[in-house]
Design goal:
Keywords: Aminoacyl-tRNA synthetase, ATP-binding, Cytoplasm, Ligase, Nucleotide-binding, Protein biosynthesis. It is found in: Cytoplasm. Homodimer. Residues 130-429 form the Aminoacyl-transfer RNA synthetases class-II family profile domain. The chain has 14 helices and 18 strands. The longest helix has 23 residues, at 124-146. It is of the alpha+beta class. The chain has two domains: 8-96, Beta Barrel (OB fold (Dihydrolipoamide Acetyltransferase, E2P)); 117-416, BirA Bifunctional Protein, domain 2 (2-Layer Sandwich), CATH 3.30.930.10. The strands form four sheets. An eight-stranded mixed β-sheet has the order 6-10-11-18-17-16-13-12. A five-stranded mixed beta barrel has the order 1-2-3-5-4. Strands 7-9-8 form a three-stranded antiparallel β-sheet, with no helix packed on it. It starts with 14 loop residues before the first strand and ends in a 20-residue tail after the last helix. Helix content is 31%, strand content 27%.
Length: 429
């Protein structure tokens, strides 16, 4: 019976056939232990010389790391194994004998591993991170489908900026200027006016010359947008969504979290609702903690970490000053100097994972914002139309996938959370 490592538990005490790669091996004179992987998981194969014969055992001893094989054997339950099973091998068929595989079990430097990212992905920990990433994506679709959202795909090439910033990748669109999208949000607002509740999931690009462990040049965003929804309702959806994703990862990625040595106790306690602190109170807190920061300044990584460490859950920081936030955010009804927005700060030093707000729904106020931010009325006319034809209260947010993967996986740098990271000085492989 041909199967996969993920499905192997269905065949205890039965003979199966696997297509696999040899991740590692060790052997003595009479027995060999093969660490096998097939993309769905890892399992140990045990080869006993007396059972396979001299010739076959010699073939096994000559196998090199990352050689590809068909392995036939009997599945045995084993509580000591991470997967709960191991394979008693009675035959192997070599598909391809690999030569001089560059990533050995010894320690390698980060730059070396990044240069060999196409191979590094095969390692146990990188495999686990990609599996957790996939589970977060799967749970995201499940959550928003259950909540009645429609998946909409905004364009990647745009004629203007979503947030009025200059950190954009410029290109030529035939005889026009175009930019790689830094957010699909504006287009999602248009989609929400047609479909009610929508979400997108796609790549975004920021031409920021940042080298921090939290930043990528190309990253993926989940961006929901909701008509007839105020800021408070949006916050409730955000905390329910994050809680749902966490619980899905804990349930479906136990082996992967174990492989990463993740302290899951930190994740198990995360359930909605989340604590909230206003920007005003956050400034007061930071000043009392000895940070030199004044009202009107944005928070950096040390500030976010300090605020997060004062709570044992993700925490919303709400109502930032208007002058440090995007042009489309709706002013607070009782204060013109702050807007109805929030950033969700993850625990354990992982920083902001969500930014969201209620959007301006008044045509005249949005025109005023265009003037204040020197935005082209022609380029944004279609966006203004949304306030001319049936404008409604609406809200939305964006969650950065890679930071969320890093947090749930418990890994230090976001470069390991995306298959092929694009960093300030890295476009290869």
């Amino acid at each position: 019976m041909k199967t996969t490592i993920k499905q192997i538990g269905k065949f205890v005490d039965k003979e199966v056939k696997l297509g696999a790669w040899l991740a590692n091996k060790r052997s003595s004179g009479k027995i060999a232990f093969l660490q096998l992987r097939d993309g769905t998981g890892f399992i140990q194969g045990v080869v006993v010389k007396a059972e396979v014969g001299e010739e076959k055992f010699q073939q096994v001893k000559d196998l090199t790391q990352e050689s590809s094989l068909y392995v036939t054997g009997v599945v045995k339950a084993d509580d000591r194994a991470p997967s709960g099973f191991e394979l008693t091998v009675n035959d192997i068929e070599i598909i391809h004998q690999a030569e001089d595989y560059p990533i050995t079990p010894k320690e390698h430097g980060t730059e070396f591993l990044m240069d060999h990212r196409h191979l590094w992905l095969r390692s146990k920990k990188q495999h686990a991170i990609m599996r957790i990433r996939n589970e977060i994506i799967r749970a995201t679709y499940e959550f928003f489908n259950e909540e009645g959202f429609v998946k909409v795909d905004p364009p990647i090439l745009t004629g203007s900026s979503a947030e009025g910033t200059t950190n954009l990748f410029h290109t030529k669109y035939f005889d026009e200027d175009a930019y790689l999208s830094q957010s699909g949000q504006l287009y999602m607002e248009a989609a929400a006016m047609a479909l009610g509740k929508v979400f997108s999931f796609g790549p975004t690009f920021r031409a920021e010359k940042s080298k921090t462990r939290r930043h990528l040049i190309e990253f993926w965003m989940i961006e929901p947008e909701m008509a007839f929804t105020d800021h408070e309702e949006s916050l409730e959806l955000q905390e329910n969504y994050v809680s749902y994703v966490i619980q899905s990862a804990l349930k479906n990625c136990k082996q992967e979290l174990q492989a990463l040595e993740r302290d899951t106790a930190q994740l198990e306690k995360i359930k909605a609702p989340f604590p909230r602190i206003s920007y005003d109170d956050a400034i007061t807190f930071l000043q009392k903690e000895g940070y030199e920061i004044t009202w009107g300044e944005d928070f950096g990584a040390p500030h976010e970490t300090a605020i997060a460490e004062s709570h044992d859950m993700p925490v919303f920081i709400t109502n930032y000053p208007k002058d440090i936030k995007a042009f489309y955010m709706k002013p607070h009804p009782e204060r013109e100097d702050v807007v109805l927005c929030a950033d969700l700060i993850a625990p354990e030093g992982y920083g902001e994972i969500i930014g969201g707000s209620q959007r301006i729904d008044d045509e005249e106020l949005l025109k005023q914002r265009f003037d204040e931010h020197s935005l082209s009325a022609d380029a944004y006319q279609w966006y203004l139309d949304l306030r001319k034809y049936g404008s409604v209260p609406h809200s939305g947010f964006g969650l950065g996938l890679e930071r969320t993967v890093a947090w749930i996986s418990g890994i230090e740098h976001v470069r390991e959370t995306i298959p092929f990271p694009r960093l300030l000085n890295r476009l290869y492989p």
